[in-house]
Amino acid sequence: MKKIISYIAFCRYFPQVIIFLFFKENLVDDIKRCEEHHNIKLEGIKGVLYLLTFDKAFRALFYYRIGKIGHVLKPLAPSFDSLMVNSNMPIGKAALFVHSFSTIINAKSIGENFRITHCCTVGNGEKGKPVIKDNVTIHAGAIVFGGITVGDNVIIGAGTVVNKSIPDNSTVIGNPAYIIKKDGKKVSIKL
Q: What are the tens digits of pLDDT across the range 115-129?
């Protein structure tokens, strides 16, 4: 049934599909990651149609990747009104926004394989914006702010408030935040 709806939606998404053909290289890793998340295997135009039809968070990432023309196309198929992505920050390949309503993403830069869920804030603090490195996951309700660095392979737990840098290979929870796992070993280290 979803495939039939995707084909019907082709008319609505015709401009996006044309733009996709020009920006395919920018989107291919994001599409693969979304397909894995949704547990589907559709490639090329079929995959884009499916994701544009059924994943509003993907639409936000799509519009981010295609740049200024996304502002023109967004009214045809809007993403979440409450998902705000700073168009001036670099986001690495294979990003995934999961149910990302009520989420603000305004970092200095974001690395590859970034994953964020709903009700999160990543943004300015007194000393600037955070730098988020590769393979970072931010869970529901987390707040990350300030001129800090979130290292590679970091997991930030639900409801965590982070305003200090996090070392690589860490899992962080709480408010105030503390590290509960570092390099695969259980620890209890206050940030």
A: 999 999 999 888 899
